[in-house]
Design brief:
Layout (H helix, E strand, L loop, with lengths): L1 H13 L5 H15 L3 H27 L6 H11 L1 H16 L2 H10 L1 H4 L1 H18 L4 H15 L6 H22 L6 H17 L9 H15 L4 H15 L10 H6 L2 H6 L1 H17 L3 H6 L9 H4 L7 H32 L13 H4 L4 H24 L6 H4 L9 E2 L14 E2 L8 H10 L6 H4 L9
Antiparallel strand pairs: 1-2
Helix pairs in contact: 1-2, 2-3, 2-19, 4-5, 4-11, 5-10, 6-13, 8-9, 9-21, 10-11, 10-12, 13-16, 16-19
């Protein structure tokens, strides 16, 4: 009977009927009712300790909800409380931006994703992590925002609404993933802190007329998606580039250096059996976890719903094949959601919260308290280096010598990667300069030549253009 009760409790916890704390209370009550043994007593004591640690952490988070500066609480959420799902939601947000034709047109024309998708992805991720880890008011955060503004200045045609939507994605997409797959939901105070933090980032990016409330901004973003989502060839090219780059992660291809990842030709990527397999798995995972069919259709993944037979357009697909594909997709979705629910229950029930000294973290409350003079020094340095490299880009042919000027300013500080994530294109040296981020596509071509890798055919036909975020 005891085994049956424990099994029922586990199933209810996985299905979300009982949360981690409710499962712990139910188990302790069960132990007291059926008799205390040494193993049961040890497990019950451990559950009590974990629950006490979780309660102490949430009490600390609640104390941060009233702070004038939203950065300390936003940092705790993104880097200590829900780092995995927050990062997953932010990464998935790339596909949201690809589904907007006006955004995908700029990104596709910049050629950053087409030539070196991993470096292009890492550049954006590092800039966002600089702001997220050190705060927009810190010297490193202010310098990162200045660098983003300098990159965007190369593209005067970028629309304000597209900038606002990108900010909307960074704000709400991680929240959606946390709400769906984490061990607890965000409180209203935590949501408000995230909104105030990203609104401050939006102000730093010179996005005008941002709403005053989070609800208004959320409603605007949902309406903007419904109005602007549309399938375009550029959307699919960007999606394919990111999928192929992500398919190079992990075993067995992670043994290869990042140079091989970034410099490999498109044909070489598509010809690798392991990359094709991992790409297919990524597509299955994305489609299973994305409850937004218009998004999948806009980025070209909906056409793969029927499997490889449909994707290759054999024109003889039968109803049985389509039904089998749908059943397979439902099975994959259920398996993934069950695994994520188990993960959430395991974290909330058995794992203590990450301590403040967790590797890669900073002194969160103090990191955002930098003097304006230091921030201006970093910002001016970033802007000047970006301006000089941009001028070289506009006056050179096919980007000759552009890459040589980027990051060679002795006055610009060399920064260590502070975030606890390992960016593939920077993992060997672990350092970078702000002017190295968001480089022109011609500089990516120069990297390929240095790596003695062939340049994709579609890139050879176009001149290098400045990469835009």
């Amino acid at each position: 009977m005891g085994v049956v009760i424990q099994l029922v409790m586990s199933i209810m916890g996985v299905l979300g009927v009982l949360g981690p704390r409710s499962c712990a209370v139910a188990y302790i009550s069960y132990v007291l009712a059926t008799g205390v043994t040494t193993p049961r007593a040890i497990l019950a004591a451990y559950l009590i300790v974990i629950a006490a640690c979780r309660w102490a952490r949430q009490r600390y988070l609640r104390s941060l909800e009233g702070c004038e500066d939203p950065f300390p609480l936003a940092y705790q959420i993104a880097f200590l409380e829900f780092p995995f799902m927050y990062d997953a939601g932010t990464s998935f947000g790339f596909f949201n931006t690809f589904a907007i034709p006006s955004i995908s047109a700029v990104l596709d024309h910049s050629q950053g994703f087409a030539v070196c998708p991993q470096v292009r992805y890492d550049d954006t991720a590092i800039l966002m992590h600089e702001v997220g880890e050190f705060g927009p008011r810190s010297r490193r955060g202010a310098a990162a925002l200045a660098r983003v503004n300098a990159i965007h200045a190369r593209w005067p045609g970028i629309r304000r609404d597209d900038m606002a939507y990108t900010l909307w994605v960074f704000l709400f997409e991680p929240q959606r993933w946390i709400e769906r797959y984490e061990w607890r939901v965000l409180s209203s105070g935590e949501k408000d802190a995230l909104w105030r933090f990203w609104r401050e980032v939006g102000v730093g990016l010179n996005i005008a007329d941002l709403p005053e409330t989070s609800d208004t901004f959320e409603a605007w973003g949902v309406a903007y998606e419904k109005q602007k989502y549309a399938a375009r060839p550029a959307n699919e090219r960007l999606t394919e580039a990111v999928l192929l780059a992500a398919a190079r992660w992990g075993p067995p291809t992670s043994a290869a250096a990042a140079k091989e990842v970034d410099g490999a030709a498109q044909a070489t990527l598509e010809g690798s059996a392991s990359v094709r397999l991992k790409r297919r798995i990524l597509v299955e995972v994305i489609t299973a976890l994305c409850p937004n069919p218009p998004l999948l259709a806009a980025i070209g993944l909906a056409k793969e719903d029927g499997g490889d037979a449909t994707a290759t357009a054999t024109a003889t697909a039968t109803a049985a094949t389509a039904t089998a594909a749908k059943v397979s997709r439902v099975a994959v979705s259920l398996a993934l959601r069950f695994a994520l629910a188990l993960r959430a229950l395991f974290i909330g029930l058995l794992l203590p919260p990450r301590p403040q000294w967790w590797p890669g973290t900073v002194l969160a409350p103090q990191a955002n308290a930098a003097s304006s003079a230091d921030a201006n020094t970093f910002s001016n340095c970033s802007s000047s280096s970006s301006s000089s490299s941009s001028n070289k880009s506009s006056s050179s042919k096919e980007g000759e010598g552009e890459g040589k000027g980027n990051g060679e300013n002795d006055e610009e500080p060399v920064l260590q990667l502070g975030c606890p994530y390992h960016f593939l294109s920077y993992k060997e040296k672990g350092t970078y300069r702000l002017s190295e981020l968001g480089r022109p596509a011609s500089h990516y071509k120069l990297l390929q030549q240095q790596q003695q890798q062939p340049v994709p055919v579609q890139v050879q036909k176009k001149r290098g253009a400045a990469a835009g975020l």
